[in-house]
Amino acid sequence: MAGVGLSSRLEGGDHVQSVESEKVQGVLSRLVTLEPRDLCNEAIVEKCRATRDLRSCGRIVEHSLNSCNHASLCAECVQRCDVCPICRAPIRSFGTPVRTRLYEDCCRAGMIRSRPGGATDADGHPNADVRRLWSFFDIALEYGLVSVIHHYVSDVCMDDMAVSSNATVSLLLDGTVVKDWCRRTLSHIIWNLHEIYGLGSAQMRYKEAQMGRFSALLLGLSEVLESLEGPYVNESSAPIIELQQLIEATRRVSQHLDVMSWCARHNFLEDLQSSHSSISEWRLAVKNRKLAATDRAWHGNIQGVRTDTDVRTSTLFIEDAMSNAGFGEDDENAFIWETLELQHLRQTTTLSSWRREGVGVMSNLHASGMLYPPESVRAAVDLIFLEASSDLILAKKAIFLYYLFDRHWPGTNNDWKSILDDYVVTFGISRHAMLESFVFFLLDEADDSALEEACCLLPEVVSSTIHPKVPRVLLERKRPFAALDVLRCSDGIGDVRFSGSAKNDEVSQLEDAVTAVRVRLECGLLTDAYLYQRAYISRIKSIEPKQSVLKSTGMNQHGSRDWSYEMESLVEEICWLCAEKCLVAQMIELPWDKDEERVLLNCLMNLATKDPCSSTGSLMVMFYIMRCRNQEAYLVHKELLAIEKTFLEQCKDMERNEIIKNICVQRSLLVVVRVCI
Ligand SMILES: [Zn+2]
Ligand SMILES: [Zn+2]
């Protein structure tokens, strides 16, 4: 990029100090005080309009006249002319006749190295005026005077009154000129970073100062882009979309650069022994974690939760986090890879190259383990910070942290802990967020000592916003009391959350509620489970009218939430678990309401039909007797007798038949004594 200040700055840092002189200061103060519209005028190349030898002189004008501000005469012609050829004002009416134009000043201060020569420059932009304006922007960006560009955007580009009949002027007044500058500047920064990143980890650390400077340039650039987007933020015309993609690309390059700088400072953790001997061993470990998670997943007795319980595979926290952040989905900004050359920042081929080569659907990458773990620290940085939307930077930082924990836990010494602390401090991650990442990793890790450590850390992590999967995993890993602590501390987890932001919100709420019920029953807290179910359903009933706006997901035709389905799921869950834990006798004593009772008895009848050897049938009769509903008790008794009769006819197992006969006799006695008398 010959001809602009930025390039000289990009190439040599030493240069910066040597030209930091009075001249530079003069230019900068001129730049700041200039009216935006005058900046445009200063950018325009003017040719001398004096007449020489019967034709126009035509030399480039380096000065403007003090009398009328016109840049109309070259240095030579100004000596012999008395009036301005444009406005006829007398030139020498007061003091010095001329002053240097801004562009000349910049060249003389060494802020612009060479002047634009021929018809086009290296950027292929045909217009010298545009290039001069860009030079001013370069200088403003370089010296932290982004406000100059801001003003240009807001006072000139956004101003409908700022128009000109002159084609060159109106070109300069258009916002496209600023956008194109942003795009070119981003491209230059990417190429410079590409060279630095290409040096390898050992050399990169000596480039820290330069990387820091690019980081500042990128921040300034995003500010300019945001001011361009400002009034059009909700529009979706092609130029605005292009602008938004430019913003997205700038942010990603910037976020990626920040982490690259951090990594360079720590030599890409090459001095730190990973706890995995090789990447293939690590991949296998992740695969095994996934298998373990699927194995231990709680397969409900009920048809239950509206997900596909039969083929339910468990996911790891890292998988959830990555797919929530949009990894493994087609990047809607694929454009920025092609046009804005983001791929030059990457060391190895990752997602986008697969995407281009058409390697299947992205979500399959999870299954094939291609997404996590990345093969090296550098690959991790590239993957996490270049792929997926820049809006999710917090999630991305947490994912990288998870990766670091995974890479080093438990470790033989504590070196890695201080590096992790440095990461946390550098990127302003809260202690809570850090521990959360750590706990997620520990809960994913199949090892029991990891589970122990997670349980120790939990009290520090629990909050009302904790991941609802935490208690579920604890339950599955046979830590119901730890799960109960989380549920209680998190104050209302599995409760009806009103956020409405998550996908399948209603389904996940019900899943959380089922987990809450299971945890309580696993801890032997039957009454608690019962009360929880009650409270959950009554809250859903109470939000019914208000929630009709959320018709889109999971609502029935009437626009209200189908609470009876959720109630059924929860009561059935209680019923089945009580049967499993021989708590049916206690369960029927609870004060069930009419709706619950219907579900409960239905469920008990199913159990009794499946296994007449159990006491379930008799307990059903007890249920009615306790409530003095003898008529119903008698009817159930008769129904059970019929079931037992068919069972006895078919079953050849003498022992079982004896048991059934016994149950039958006892229940008949009960009915005779309590009902018929
Ligand atoms: Zn001239
Ligand atoms: Zn004039």
Automatic annotation (TrEMBL):
InterPro entries per UniProt: ELYS_dom, HOS1, Znf_RING, Znf_RING/FYVE/PHD
Main localization category: nucleus
GO molecular function annotations of the record: ubiquitin-protein transferase activity; zinc ion binding
Domain RING-type: 57-88
Pfam families reported for this sequence: ELYS
Gene Ontology BP annotations: protein ubiquitination
Keyword list, A-Z: Metal-binding, Nucleus, Zinc, Zinc-finger
Gene Ontology CC: one annotated term: nucleus
Cell location: Nucleus
PANTHER family in the cross-refs: E3 UBIQUITIN-PROTEIN LIGASE HOS1
Protein name from the UniProt record: RING-type domain-containing protein
